[in-house]
Amino acid sequence: MTTIAALPYEYELPESGKVALIVIDMQRDFLEPGGFGDALGNNVSLLQAIVPTLKSLIEGFRSMGLPIIHTIECHQPDLSDCPPAKLKRGKGNLTIGSEGGMGRILVKGEVGNGIIADLAPLPGEFVIHKPGKGAFYATTLDSILKEQGITHLFITGVTTEVCVQTTMREANDRGYECLMVEDCTESYFPEFKQATLEMVRAQGGIVGWTAIAAEVLNGLKHWQPAKALV
Fold first, then answer.
1. Which is the catalytic residue, given 18, 130, 133, 193?
2. For residue 225, with 0-12 CB atoms within 10 Å meaning exposed, 13-18 middle and 19 or more buried, which class applies?
């Protein structure tokens, strides 16, 4: 059994199942100056700090031929697919659908809605457009994972306490073994990230595991499952 050094204890890689990397919402509006996150008064440099490590992790998965799934939080131009709670909340000058510095906020196809250039998906990688916080709500993610025989997920992206944690909890309830990559996820509020890491691995891994990217790649390099790849 190949394992990855993790918390609260070692994470076991599957002997016959498959693994995938999920990269959540690494979008220009959340990470770049002049975008939605910046307009709300957040320090986007906190999120930008994880980009080099996440890029290395993505490249590691690509080199091993392992599946990568990118998500984009977005809505149709008429906002018909936007959950009511998302439309009702937020009292700032900019809300979902408003015109921001990079186009309409969280609207599919707008400049700010795109994934940052450094982490752009390659042909053959999955891209999930999600209307909710979690990547399973109103998407094809679960069916893709089942079709691919994927049982174990490495979860990254932003923000740690919202879309990343929600996706991990959704996956946990569906039976996937999940590990959140600590240095490949971030929040505008460092204390929220730390609290999330502690919550997901509490009580013996009630939601899952956490580990750093270097340990993930080291474990995968030694992994030789019988049916890891198609």
1. 130
2. middle
Mean pLDDT of 145-167: 98
Query: Is 38 among the catalytic positions?
Result: no
Burial of residue 224 (CB within 10 Å: 0-12, 13-18, 19+) is: exposed
CA 57 to chain centre: 13
CB–CB of 56/50 below 8 Å?
A: no
Predicted TM-score (pTM) of this structure: 0.96
Give the active site residue among 74, 82, 163, 184: 163
pLDDT at residue 226, rounded to an integer: 61
25 has catalytic annotation: yes
Quick check: 230 pLDDT over 50? Answer: no
Report pLDDT digits (tens) over 89-106: 877 788 899 999 999 999
Task: Please state at what angle helix 190-200 crosses helix 165-173, rounded to 10 degrees.
Answer: 10
Verify whether residue 29 is a known catalytic residue.
no
